[in-house]
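Design a sequence for this backbone.
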């Protein structure tokens, strides 16, 4: 299967698709749609360095998850093209250089195959990889499928439609806006309170109870959001070996990297890890 990975060059400010670690495509000037008919320009684009970045992501990570960066921080993975995007790209249509933060966050659950749809099986495997036991993972998969999926599709979740599937009555934290993008200024309010609470406690982490107080100070999470925060706390309990959470972990939940970190955590408790999602050949 052809591998196509989005890579962003922070220095040059351009987006690319690197195909099979070799061929490189970019966007036309003035737009952000990556196109097969717009190959990288050897006079302008850092072609060799982009190939090195693609090899780095392939060598050191089980998948090019959005947000991971090269050691110098210059090149950032924006995730692979899923099969539907790859087909559009192959047909000559443009694909987005970057999807919304919420879509990137959900990449973790879309893996076999990566097609923009989270099946009930993929959902279950994702929760297992986060350290949940079999029954707990099944429960999480079923609940999220019921909320965000559709019965006629076997409770599969269409990532592109997830915001529309959220219950209309649900109160939100507003950290993700209606377009699925991070509201950085709003998130900063939560993070500043985390910093203040950590300084007051004289530690780098705060209790789940204190974190929930901060969340409720700025938002009125509905039952879906409360369930999602319970899941966050469960993941952090496993990572921290106790009921605490750091500022970085709270922030990493929304940029998606916390899920990758948690699933990569050694399975000291005998739970499934990230190898469940990406077994070695």
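Sequence:
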């Amino acid at each position: 299967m052809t591998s196509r990975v989005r890579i962003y060059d922070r220095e040059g400010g351009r987006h690319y698709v690197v195909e099979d670690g070799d061929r490189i495509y970019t966007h036309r000037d003035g737009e952000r749609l990556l196109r097969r008919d717009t190959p990288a320009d050897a006079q302008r684009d850092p072609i060799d360095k982009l190939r090195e970045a693609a090899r780095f992501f392939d060598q050191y990570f089980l998948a090019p998850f959005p947000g991971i960066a090269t050691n110098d921080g210059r090149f950032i993975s924006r995730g692979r093209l899923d099969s539907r995007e790859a087909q559009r790209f192959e047909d000559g249509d443009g694909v987005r250089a970057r999807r919304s933060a919420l879509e990137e966050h959900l990449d973790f659950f879309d893996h076999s195959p990566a097609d923009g749809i989270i099946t009930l099986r993929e959902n279950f495997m994702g929760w297992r990889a986060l350290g949940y036991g079999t029954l707990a993972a099944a429960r999480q998969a079923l609940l999220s499928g019921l909320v965000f999926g559709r019965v006629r599709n076997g409770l599969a979740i269409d990532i592109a439609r997830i915001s529309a599937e959220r219950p209309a009555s649900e109160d939100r934290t507003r950290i993700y806006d209606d377009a699925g993008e991070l509201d950085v200024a709003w998130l900063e309010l939560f993070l500043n309170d985390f910093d203040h609470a950590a300084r007051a406690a004289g530690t780098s982490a705060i209790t789940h109870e204190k974190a929930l107080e901060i969340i409720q100070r700025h938002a009125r999470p509905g039952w879906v959001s409360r369930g999602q925060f319970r899941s966050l706390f469960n993941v952090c309990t496993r990572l921290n070996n106790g009921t605490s959470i750091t500022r970085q972990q709270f922030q990493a939940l929304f940029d998606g990297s916390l899920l990758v970190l948690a699933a990569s955590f050694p399975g000291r408790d005998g739970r499934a890890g990230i190898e469940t999602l990406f077994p070695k050949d």
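The first strand starts at residue 4 and ends at 9.
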